[in-house]
């Protein structure tokens, strides 16, 4: 038998092989379309960036050489320094942290209480099911009276 006959007879007739082959072709076609769209967007972005004119600063922004001498005279400092602005990040003062940790602890205690009640109810339910349903069936099948 030639290879062509073997492939034709065993592989081509199987629907799973055909489905996998078609899916592979579909994935390759989809990848090609996605690549084409991505490339066209990259070219459009670079072309639009190249066509934008560069911003020239106005004459007033060119530096202190353009300013009159009277404007460059040193000024007196402010009479009272302004308070420092808050820095970005987490608050670390003790009152805030203790209040936040207290809320977290209360929520955690509530969650643990709910979890414990759920576990206790599940254990009680299983125990009741075993005693009322499973045990009588086992005893009856073994022929032992309860």
Features:
146 residues; 2 domains; mainly alpha; single chain; 65% helix
Explain the overall architecture.
This protein has 146 residues and is mostly helical. It folds into 2 domains: 48 residues; 55 residues. Helix content is 65%, strand content 0%. It has 3 helices and no strands.
Sequence-ordered SSE layout with sheet pairings:
Elements: H1 3-11, H2 15-51, H3 94-142
Short description:
This protein is mainly α and 146 residues long.
- Domain tally: 2
Distance between the termini: 73 Å
- Main sheet properties: none
Helix vs. strand class: mainly alpha
Which descriptor suits the 3D outline?
flat
The number of E-state strands comes to 0
Strand content: under 5%
> What is the count of DSSP helices, taking H or I runs of 4+ residues?
3
């Amino acid at each position: 038998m030639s290879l062509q006959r073997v492939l034709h007879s065993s592989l081509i007739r199987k629907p799973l092989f055909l489905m996998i082959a078609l899916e592979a072709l579909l994935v390759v076609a989809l990848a090609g379309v996605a690549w084409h769209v991505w490339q066209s967007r990259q070219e459009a972005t670079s072309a639009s960036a190249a066509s934008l004119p560069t911003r020239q600063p106005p004459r007033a922004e060119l530096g202190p050489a353009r300013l009159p001498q009277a404007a460059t005279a040193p000024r007196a400092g402010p009479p009272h320094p302004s308070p420092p602005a808050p820095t970005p990040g987490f608050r670390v003062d003790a009152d805030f942290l203790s209040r936040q940790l207290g809320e977290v602890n209360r929520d955690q205690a509530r969650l643990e209480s709910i979890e414990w009640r759920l576990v206790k109810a599940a254990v009680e339910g299983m125990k009741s099911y075993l005693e009322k349903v499973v045990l009588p069936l086992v005893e009856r099948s073994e022929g032992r009276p309860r």
